[in-house]
Design brief:
The protein is mainly alpha-helical. The protein is built from 7 helices and 2 strands. It is globular.
């Protein structure tokens, strides 16, 4: 049996490792720095606003898709990690093919439910931040 903290750590490790692989050389440091700023963004603007920001920045307007590959994928990877974790906890639905539905669902939450969701997102991001930093140190990036 694992604690919730262990589950967060395991999930964050897998997401950080996958993100670093997608971002390629030099991606570890950039992703680590980017993820480190997300808790502050959530505290200042809220979870819904932060997820909207990530999704908007991930959008490739020319092609009508999301940038999920290469060095421009950090916004999508952060969004996907966070939404996937909240889905894993049965707190939110997340369909990678229709990510805007996640935003719609958040906007319909009651205040207490929204705050609970936001608190869990912050707890997860602490682990994602640490795991991402670990990969920077490991790669010497």
């Amino acid at each position: 049996m694992r604690t919730e903290g262990q589950e967060r750590a395991r999930f964050a490790y897998e997401k950080a490792r996958a993100a670093i692989k997608v971002l390629g050389d030099g991606g570890a440091k950039e992703f680590s720095s980017f993820v480190a700023g997300l808790p502050a963004m959530i505290m200042q603007n809220g979870l819904g606003h932060t997820l909207c920001f990530l999704l908007a920045k991930a959008a490739d307007q020319k092609n009508g898709r999301y940038k999920k590959e290469g060095q421009e994928a950090k916004h999508w990877l952060a969004f996907e990690a966070l939404a996937s974790w909240l889905k894993n906890q049965d707190m939110l639905s997340f369909d990678p093919e229709a990510p805007a539905t996640t935003i719609e669902e958040i906007s319909q939450k009651e205040a207490l439910e929204y705050l609970t969701l936001q608190e869990e997102a912050l707890r997860f991001l602490e682990w994602l931040k640490v795991m991402s930093k670990m990969f920077v140190e490991e790669k010497g990036a």
